[in-house]
Write a structure and sequence with these properties.
heterodimer; A: ABC transporter involved in vitamin B12 uptake, BtuC; two-stranded antiparallel sheet; 71% helix; globular; B: 267 residues; alpha/beta; Rossmann fold; six-stranded mixed β-sheet; 9 helices; binds adenosine-5'-diphosphate; binds magnesium ion
Chain lengths: 305, 267
């Protein structure tokens, strides 16, 4: 009994670590920039596909993972341009990119819905070669990647551009009045966000042993749920501390799912479970969404920004 | 005296071509020389904010011209005008980024209109400068550099916004009823601070106010907007001997009798 729980916990930890990058990406757009970005559901499988195809070609796992990150940057750039330059509302811009990305990811995967990584070296086999168990290898690599990402983000948000980006999400009029190029800040934010999300997709594909064209469905909900759990548990944190707690949120979310799975449900029920977790969290009184997705907004202004 | 701002035949019409067509500005012509501190009065809806928005660039201009320091800025976006023009809005929430700290907000303003890069957003050497600047507000803010702006009162935030607008010397500062949302006592503090900062740096300024006494007391020139035009333009000399009663009388002469029950005069 204790053993199974420990195993459950370890597996949730490793999974949660890899998913936390998704939560971090979603956090950047939803919270820092106050934009509802759905690109995530396209950049996640894109990241998985790019990493997988690179690995199959025998490219170094670290480079393959970085390539996925770059793919995410480009996806974010497209949404950013649609939103700012073509003035398409962010929610719609993300849906457009996500839809287009489906075809692109399919092409990356050479028209297969699934591509296996069986027998290929991944970023995790590097650590396994050091003598670690599979799960420990995932946890170690996950910790390294996530901490590098968070450290870079914390440093970035303290730079002049980083401050300008946070100000843009906070008060766009004031930012413009201070000469901040708010459109550029948004585009950059979309890029970094989707880079992180593609990175999450790349790591999870390597962990699962395959890339899946349809793996993006519902991922935004997973990201949001992790954010909400983190925010409900610990309030009013600085950005650095908040990013760290997103790891916790993602792990707890995995634990909740693992417990749900103990109840003899079908794997496909996971999405319903995700949706329900999100509903419960959103019903909590203190939770807030980006201004263009405000709770109970009767004026349907959700398509305005 | 060198000319700082020239507004040539500025028109602004909202909902043009509809039944709700609203011709707010109908040919504004103004020239400001360096050091001019112009107070602007006018009834609600006279177009005072519209005028400032046109100068700052938040409203596109279809007819007319804005020239700043000899350069035509009519078509420049807000962000490109920010280097030369700073603003303080009526709503204290508008001027600062809530989730950023006091020093982060000040650091943003230090870079107004400058290129931003990957250097530290808040620089060590700037902290002392921020502290000394905050100290002169006399609001005990000098030791709260790390406080989130959102936790401060409206008056404190407005004072900081004012400081931010002058931290990097602007060629022109626009103040739009920036004390209207404050309680009377804070309002006086912020108004005195405004005058101090403007005088110290010899700034060229536009200050919209609904308070006739303030309009007379501060600045070296007084303008009244009415029906989209400059209805009164008084010099420093004319202002010196002005009283609220006289000003109302002059206004009535200019625009007729309908002013009596005008909301502005209740202020
Ligand atoms: N962006 C806008 N769109 C449409 N009408 C506007 C806009 N801004 C101002 N107006 C209208 O223009 C008129 C002048 O407004 P404003 O310049 O704010 O007046 P004031 O600041 O003098 O009180 C008002 O009738 C207002 O409703
Ligand atoms: Mg106004």
């Amino acid at each position: 009994m204790i053993n199974t729980f420990w195993e459950l916990f370890l597996s949730a930890t490793s999974q949660g670590l890899l998913w936390s990058l998704m939560a971090i990406g979603v956090y950047l757009t939803f919270r820092i920039l106050d934009l509802a970005d759905m690109t995530a559901e396209g950049s996640f499988p894109l990241g998985g596909a790019i990493a997988t195809m690179c690995l199959i070609k025998g490219i170094n796992p670290i480079l393959a993972t970085l390539a996925a990150f770059v793919g995410g940057l480009i996806a974010g750039f497209v949404t950013g341009v649609l939103n700012t330059k073509l003035r398409i509302p962010s929610l719609l811009a993300g849906i457009i990119t996500m839809t287009g990305l489906y075809s692109i990811t399919s092409r990356v995967m050479q028209n297969a819905a699934n591509v296996s990584l069986l027998g290929k070296d991944t970023i995790f086999t590097i650590a396994q070669n050091w003598g670690l168990s599979r799960n420990n290898a995932v946890i170690l690599m996950g910790v390294i990647v996530v901490f590098i990402v968070i450290a870079l983000l914390v440093i970035f948000f303290r730079t002049e551009i980083g401050l300008a980006m946070r100000a843009t999400g906070d008060n766009i009029q004031m930012s413009a009045a201070n000469g901040i190029k708010t459109q550029g800040m948004k585009i950059l934010g979309y890029m970094i966000s989707n880079g992180c999300i593609a990175l999450s997709g790349a790591l999870l594909a390597q962990n699962n042993g395959f890339a899946d064209l349809n793996s993006g469905v519902g991922t935004i909900v997973i990201g949001l749920a992790s954010i909400i759990i983190a925010e409900v548990l610990l309030r009013n944190l600085s950005i650095g501390a908040r990013l760290l707690t997103l790891i916790l949120g993602a792990i707890i979310y995995r634990l909740i799912l693992a417990l749900v799975f103990q109840m003899n449900v079908e794997p496909s029920d996971a999405k319903l479970a995700s949706a329900l977790v999100l509903v419960v969290c959103l019903a909590l009184p203190n939770f807030h969404l980006p201004h263009n997705l405000k709770k109970g907004d009767k004026n349907v202004s959700s398509l305005k920004n | 005296m060198s000319q700082v701002l020239k507004i040539k035949d500025l028109h602004q019409t909202f909902e043009q071509g509809t039944v709700n067509e609203n011709r707010v500005l109908r040919g504004i012509n103004l020239e400001l020389v360096a050091g001019d501190f112009v107070t602007i009065i006018g009834s609600n809806g006279a177009g005072k904010s519209t005028l400032l928005n046109s100068i700052a660039g938040t409203l596109p201009i279809k007819q007319g011209q804005i020239i700043l320091n000899g350069n035509d800025i009519t078509k420049l976006p807000v962000t490109r005008r920010a280097e030369k023009i700073s603003r303080v809005f009526q709503d204290p929430k508008m001027g600062t980024a809530v989730r950023l700290t006091v020093e982060e907000n000040l650091a943003l303003a230090m870079k107004r209109g400058q290129k931003r890069g990957f250097r530290a957003g808040v620089k060590k050497k700037d902290r002392d400068f921020f502290k000394s600047q905050l100290a002169q507000l006399n609001l005990n803010l000098e030791n709260r550099l790390g406080t989130e702006i959102g936790l401060l009162s409206g008056g404190q935030r407005q004072a900081i916004t004012l400081l931010m607008a002058t931290l990097r010397r602007p060629d022109l500062i626009l103040l739009d009823e920036h004390t209207a949302a404050l309680d009377p006592k804070t309002s006086i503090t912020v108004m005195q601070l405004t005058e101090k900062l403007i005088n110290e740096q010899n700034l060229t300024a536009f200050m919209v106010t609904h308070n006739m006494e303030d309009a007379i007391r501060y600045g070296n020139r007084l303008i009244m907007l009415h029906q989209g035009r400059v209805a009164l333009d008084l010099t420093e000399k004319e202002k010196k001997s002005l009283t609220v009663a006289k000003l109302m009388e002059m206004f009535q002469k200019q625009v007729g009798t309908e002013v009596k029950d005008d909301a502005m005069l209740l202020a």
